Amino acid sequence: MSRSAAWAETRTxxxxxxxxxxxxxxxxxxGLGVMVFPFLWMxxxxxxxxxxxxxxxxxxxxxxxxNYAAIFQGTPFPRWMxxxxxxAVIATVSVCVFDSITGYILAKFTFWGKQVIFVLILSTLMxxxxxxxxxxxxxxxxFNGMDTYWGILFPGLISGFGIFLMKQFMESLPSELLDAARxxxxxxxxxxxxxxxxxxxxxxxxxxILTFLGSWNSFIWPLIITQSEEMFTIPVGMAFFSSEAxxxxxxxxxxxxxxxxxxxxxxxxxxxxxxxxxxxxxxxLK
Length: 286
What we know:
mainly alpha, 13 helices, flat
């Protein structure tokens, strides 16, 4: 092949590569716009006047904070936000404590029936949530859990997925390290808290984030178990706003409430984004 022919072939390959990159960027930009536009429109609408509520413009002609004042002063939204925060924090702490202990025991201790217990825990992941609602409802009604925090919380205090996740991470810890700590006289709780837990921080971060998100966005069970407006969580309260939407003022409330509901999640992600990304990536490798 002559030098000019080789140069022409190289230019053709570069041209095709540049065209492929442009198409990839165009598709990514299109996908980004489809996903991000509704989110930006929701935030923008929360700052619009009532006569602009149906406009697709992302820039309000006149920015107003009256919608936020109205939702805090004229609706039970602050109570719903506190309810969601309370339920999500308690569920996250409970899942992290119980799931990590259970995962550590299943990974690092040998006892009779260990595999049977693990298989039974895994089998709970294969049961759809909808199948469990009736048993949960019967348990709640039997223990006076209707329209209470206990009733909202108890199905999410421990999860099979969390146990499986923590067990997989705990198994990667070298047993020789734990044995060395035992030889030095450290107790089992000390080994767990001072050696095992710090070494699986990415798994902890992932489990905390996923549990918090799941509890914060949970809708079906809180909708069934709560009866009074004071016990609504944010998703149930937003559905209540939607059911009452008869004019543009209700839609402004929905957009404003939806904007406020995502703020804690954004703050959480900004604070722990490194741990979240590392944990999810490591979880994928498992």
